[in-house]
Amino acid sequence: MNPVGFSTRVCAFTAAALFVAGGVASTAFAKVDLKARFSQTARYWLEDNRLRHQTSELNLRQTADVREGVTTVVEGRFRYESAILPPDATRLREYPKAVQDDEGFESEARQIYLDWLTNVAAIKVGVVQFDWMDSLSPRTSDSITALDLRHGGFDSASQIIEPVFAASGNFSLGFGSLEMMVVPHGKPHRLPKGENGYGYGERVNGLLGGVSQALKQAGLRGNIDSQRQSPGIPAGGKDIEFGGRFLANVEGFDLSFIGWRGHQRTPTLDVSLYDSPDATATNPDWILAAAETHVRMNTYAAFLGYGGDAAVVRLFSIYEPGRRPAVLVEDDLAWTLLGQLPADEAYATGELLFGDEAYRRGAVLDRTRTGAGFDYVFSKHLKVYSEAYVTRSRVTGNTLGGQGIEDSWRDHTGTLRITNESFDDLFMSCDVTMTGPERSWLVSPDVTYEWREGAKSARAGASSWKMSFGGWLVQSESDKSSLRILRGARQVYARLTAWL
After folding, report:
1. Which pLDDT tens digit goes with each residue over 254-294?
2. Of 189, 270, 313, 428, which one is least surrounded by beta carbons within 10 A?
3. How much is the average pLDDT of 471-500?
4. Sheet of 268-275: strands edge to edge?
């Protein structure tokens, strides 16, 4: 049984049993802390000028001290999307069933784990959210942590990091600590359905339509049935994910080294063409299959930070060998499409049909990211965080035309985050990310006002409310940019959140 899927399905019942029976739990445990958060979010999409999402969300989190050194945490999320599901009075658009099933209602475990502190190690077992990358951007590495990208991947880390079942141990080693983790069943990024009209799924559907048309023009007779296959990442056995992280502080320098054996979270599209079982000599029938695969790969990373109360300088490098390009094409399909063309025309035609990173099956992509960051606190109100890195990608393999190559290119990414708390209860922030050499950018402003019940008396346990306004504005001028699939997700939002 898949432990993550099982935990997700029973979350509502587990959480309800623990939360509702709060009085009983209080007598069984030394200390129980229960927190509830309710939010209502409206998202207006700028690409098609309409209110696309109206989301009601309830988060419940209970922390219980079972005994000295042993703590349990249970956190569940219940989400309802009234813009997608009936009744007709609230539904904003007629969405396909695949989209309704994927986004309409969710009841899932965000965290259910046991913390056990011993004299030797700190042990954690259960459903957890983890991110080992000390970076401003959640997309710095896509091989360790899976993200929820259905709405563009925009939101706080706790909202978009996908939970996984894991077991970890943190051991003290002299001047540092070593954390080891095992994940029996890794997760891929959670991508929007193609019927949503934006993002990765729409791009795949458009790609298959273009290839089918090109096959017809190349003289292929018979019906072509396009099939998209998303098997995900296998569980257990040779697909178990594991790794370690070493943290240390030496003479004021913060050091972090990471090694991880996992999977590529962003899928590679493996496209092939084969005879349908219904095909006959007189009535040819074909299947154009696009299988989303997640290759096994390693990640090695090192981070170095140094600073004082006002300024911090950070350096990092991430090496990810053995990745796969975005699109791989089976030999017979490549020959059917391009075999009669000269090499230069074949390559150009391949780019037009599949995108900039289409190669023959077997091609390998090695990627290195090296960068630096600088953070500065001007005052307790104004803080600036910055980061820039260079990505070097190298592909070895064959082009669609059959030529062996070793192709390499560089991309540049810079992120600037500014936060301002100059006014009581008013928080303002803005993130700006730019990529190159063909410019793309992402701007994310946010203004939040907070008020508390009984704030003047500073009463413990008082309810608090937040009203937030912001948006995610994306512009990508190149299909090579990592921001390309976010172009259709430009949006502004308003969110009312209550903590009880």
Report:
1. 999 999 999 999 889 999 988 888 888 788 888 999 999 99
2. 313
3. 75
4. 223-229, 285-293, 268-275, 327-329, 358-360
Residue 124 has pLDDT above 60, yes or no: yes
- State the pTM of this model: 0.86
User: What is the dihedral sign for C-alpha 25, 29, 30, 36?
Assistant: negative
Q: 350: pLDDT confidence band, cut at 50, 70 and 90?
A: low
Contact 413, 437 (CB under 8 A): no
Report the relative pairing of strands 164-173 and 105-117 from DSSP bridges.
unpaired
Q: Give the whole-angstrom CA distance, residue 412 versus residue 51.
A: 34
Whether residue 50 has pLDDT greater than 80: no
pLDDT in tens, 186-231: 999 998 887 777 777 878 888 888 888 888 877 788 888 888 888 8
Which residues contact residue 448 at a Cβ distance below 8 angstroms, ignoring those fewer than 6 apart? 426, 427, 428, 466, 467, 468, 469
- Spatial distance between the Cα atoms of 327 and 305, rounded to a whole number of angstroms: 37
Mean pLDDT, residues 418-446 taken together = 87
- Specify whether the CB–CB gap between 359 and 398 falls below 8 A: yes
More confident call, 375 vs 341: 375
For the record, the structure tokens of 357 come out as: 């990173």
